[in-house]
Design brief:
Length: about 450
């Protein structure tokens, strides 16, 4: 897991200098989020717009692309491909940045870029809302302060050295105004996170503060290493536990499903099929592979909430399928609809056996069971890694698994979408030699199922 250090504090507390130094010591990437707000401000100001004109700023966001690049370890910020790192450091842009940063849409606009860098790298990220909003799960949070006068002295010195004519009084007034703006705005105001360590840098050297931050980060790195070691041990223990074989409980084929249920299904199926085939461009392949009886598992890739319906439209016997418990807490109409179609809730974290028992029960009641081995829907249509649950259920139930591949282009299922549903050759666990639930056998069965689904999708 990447280590994230969130460094927040008011303007001029020395965040960027200290973060640069600490990140060098640690070999972390330094991410200056203030530079991103400044870049938005620079775009607005240099195009002659008013940074306080919320409507205008928001409508211009579509024309702005911000990228962070690291050149010799230094962060450079690119505005629509152009390096503007130096041009965003003027007092005018500081004030404009304070204005645009109060606009919620601007914050939203930058959020994902900030989070994605933090997901992939060990970073020190500085700003105003990093510990509270951007990275609430950061392992280390620092709130760096210093009195307004001391901050003004530091900034004044810095500006004078650059030849900026601002007086100390102007710099102090600017700092006070930005402090006020940053702490009083409605969205993500500057605020210490409850779990942040506060460091007052008024009478500390840069080196001292950086050292303190580096210490805290190093502690987080070593804690992270021991946590992942412990997680490894835990999963090895869990795997060992799973190796104790589960009793086989073969499905009694030929068992008739409850006639009421079957009757309802016989009535509903042509109606639903009519709707679905008119709503989508639906094509079926391999229908000859669908068994005429019940008690079979249909293992499919998962693309949309429509999948259980697509699969069931070609089965004579109604299906059951697992659905996240959350889905039963949405609107009542949706809940009734999925229940009528055979959904039963799985509560995450209840342990395998409860789900296995319920699944075997459903199969034993004569129904077909639809399983999405990937666990979640795939947005891009690629078939992800399958979980072992499908193989475990099939091995315990010793029943036929019909692999299914559902394909459509793009992310969302919508009207007129061309949808192809392919049923593959049934897989019979015993024919693969899978007659118990040993890890080796489950792996073999899962592989056979997932390979088959993948070939049906492609
Ligand atoms: O840190 P800085 O002075 O470069 O920041 C410029 C402005 O951007 C400042 O007024 C506060 C705002 N900012 C913010 O609102 N949230 C952040 N995470 C970083 C900066």
């Amino acid at each position: 897991m990447a280590i994230n250090v969130a460094l927040d504090g008011p303007s001029g507390a020395g965040k960027s200098t200290i973060a640069k130094l600490a990140s060098k010591k640690l070999g972390f990437v330094y991410v200056d989020t203030g530079a991103m707000y400044r870049t938005v401000a620079y775009y607005i100001a240099s195009n002659g717009f008013d940074p306080k004109d919320t409507q205008r700023v928001v409508s211009e966001l579509d024309n702005i692309t911000i990228e962070l690049k690291y050149i010799d370890g230094e962060q450079a910020v690119l505005l629509n491909g152009e390096n503007v790192s130096d041009r965003i450091r003027t007092p005018e842009i500081s004030m404009a940045a304070s204005s645009v940063s109060a606009i919620p849409q601007v914050r939203e606009f930058l959020l994902e870029t900030q989070r994605s860098i933090a997901r992939e790298n060990n970073i020190i990220m500085d700003g105003r809302d990093i510990g509270t909003v951007v990275l609430p799960n950061a392992q280390v949070k620092i709130f760096l302060t210093a009195s307004a006068e001391i901050r003004a002295q530091r900034r004044f010195k810095e500006l004078s050295e650059k030849g900026d004519p601002s007086t100390y009084e102007q710099v102090l007034a600017d700092i006070n105004e930005r402090d006020y703006n940053d702490t009083h705005r409605e969205t993500a105001p500057l605020k210490k996170a409850p779990d942040a360590v506060e460091i007052d840098s008024s009478f500390m050297t840069i080196e001292q503060v950086a050292e303190r931050i580096a210490e805290l980060a190093e502690k987080a790195v070593s804690e992270n290493a021991s946590a992942s070691e412990a997680a490894k041990k835990k999963s090895a223990a869990a795997e060992k536990k799973q190796r104790t074989l589960m009793p086989i409980n073969p499905i009694k084929k030929g068992k008739r499903i409850n006639p009421m249920r079957q009757g309802f299904y016989n009535l509903a199926r042509p109606f639903v099929r009519f709707i679905f085939t008119h709503w989508f461009e639906l094509t079926y392949e391999g229908v000859e592979n669908v068994p005429r009886d019940g008690g079979n598992i249909f293992a499919s890739n998962h693309r949309s909430y429509g999948d259980p319906v697509f699969i069931a439209l070609m089965t004579r016997v109604p299906i059951s399928y697992m659905a996240k418990e959350e889905l039963f807490k949405q609107n009542i109409f949706f809940t009734l609809l999925i229940k009528a179609w055979g959904a039963f809730p799985v509560v995450r974290g209840t342990g395998d056996t409860a789900v296995i028992d319920t699944s075997v029960e459903k199969l034993n009641s004569g129904r077909n069971l639809v399983i999405f081995p990937e666990g979640t829907r795939s947005k891009d249509g690629r078939v992800g890694k399958g979980k072992t649950g499908v193989a475990l259920i099939a091995a315990v139930a010793q029943t036929t698994v019909v692999p299914v591949g559902i394909s459509f282009e793009g992310e969302k299922l919508c009207r007129r979408k061309r949808v192809v549903v392919r049923y593959g050759k049934p897989i019979i666990p015993a024919e693969l030699g899978v007659t118990d639930t040993s890890t080796k056998n489950l792996k073999l069965l899962k592989k056979s199922i997932m390979d088959s689904i993948t070939s049906l999708v492609n």
